[in-house]
Amino acid sequence: AAVTYGNIIFRNIVGTPEKPIIIRNCGGVAHVNGTGLAYSIKTQQSKYFRITGGNVNGVYGITITGGQLGITLDKLSTNFEVDHVQVKDVGFAGIMAKTDPDCDDATIRQHFVMENVLFHNNYIDGAGGEGFYVGNSFYEGMNRACGLRLPHEVHFVKIFNNITKNTGREGIQLGCATRGAKVYGNTIENYGTALLRNQNSGMQLGSGTGGICYNNLIKDGTGNGLIILGLGDNVVYNNVIVNAGDLGIFCDDRISPGPGFQFINNTIINPGTDGIRIYAERVPMNVIKNNVIVNPGAYHTYAYPYTPEDAFVFKLGENVPVKMEGNFFTTDIHEACFMDVARGNYRPTNNSPVVDRGADISADDIKTDFYKKSRLKGAGYDIGAAEL
């Protein structure tokens, strides 16, 4: 902590699964300032390591300021963990993790997998681009001088309990995560400040990404709350999405070998246009179950052949297979009877019409709600992200 750092690069840091190399602060909070540089911390060709700030008197043990990238884990880095790091005021991504494909065969899908990576308990404030940029955005390949090159897959990534605020683009963007992806417990606020259309969502689960997404709070952004272009095995539940500038959730099946997208027990409040817009027509069945959608902005703008009700769940067409049950839709937030909207408490009160009115989710393996309280407290499941 006594040292004033410019940027730092770690090459060939290789531990073992049982004994990963630990990179951490010593003697208090360590500060890294990459202002005017391409990055603050970079890893290359490293494996089985952890960058951790620990917890120093309630604050993050490593703080990073400036640079185009706060932390970048690239050039075949894999099997790592990043936690308790604060990143602020960077030009592009707060934390980036990927090796883009090039004409070196070691970088492409058939030869490299980034796997067993964890990002948790980090705080990113003021990234000009994404807060987290994990995995490549172009699952179907990138054109290089040697032809079309497929980016590596990401297996068993977990992104949880992080905070992102004031990001120019997405708070969290995850791509090519084909196996075992989990994104949960994150808070994303004030996203899309750069006003770049199609790059201003709270969270993007991009092409080639499957897995589960739950218990995230996404609020106050200029674009969609959540955009999913995944594998079609995506299960999205217990998320609270408030004041999205555009759609609450947008879903399309760019690469979809899976059984379908499932949206269960989410609470979506005041989206700028539709609550959920779903274009996924190549999967066997999509499920929209037990969601609360309040006051979609497009409700009063749709005209024939659409109806105001289409603003709650908008389908691309009749060919989109959707099973809907147990949802609660209203244009008046007072009808939902939340405990304290002003303080962000979206638990229902005793007299709420969502209590005990949800469809059975016993087979969906959802044991707790957004507030980590047990599900099924009464005669039936409650609708929305929170149980009474």
Descriptive tags:
about 400 residues, about 40% strand, mainly beta
Summarize the structure.
By secondary structure, the chain is an all-beta fold.
Which strand-content bin applies to the residues? Answer: 35-45%
The main β sheet shows up as: 11 strands, parallel
Question: What would the principal axes of the Cα set say about the shape?
Answer: globular
- Low-confidence segments, given as residue ranges, are none
Ends distance: 46 Å
Radius of gyration: 21 Å
- Helix % is under 10%
Number of strands: 39
Mean pLDDT: 96
Count of runs of 4 or more consecutive helical residues: 0
Strand order of the largest sheet: 1-4-9-12-15-20-23-26-29-32-35
Broad structural category: mainly beta
Explained architecture:
This protein is mostly beta strands and 388 residues long. The mean pLDDT is 96. The strands form six sheets. An eleven-stranded parallel beta sheet has the order 1-4-9-12-15-20-23-26-29-32-35, with no helix packed on it. The chain is built from no helices and 39 strands. The protein is 0% helix and 39% strand. The chain starts with 7 loop residues before the first strand and ends in a 40-residue tail after the last strand. The chain has strands at residues 8-11, 21-24, 30-33, 39-44, 47-52, 55-56, 59-60, 62-65, 69-74, 78-83, 85-90, 95-97, 113-120, 123-127, 132-134, 142-144, 147-149, 153-160, 163-167, 172-174, 182-184, 187-191, 203-205, 212-214, 217-219, 226-228, 235-237, 240-242, 249-251, 262-264, 267-269, 276-278, 286-289, 292-294, 313-315, 322-325, 328-330, 338-340, 345-348.
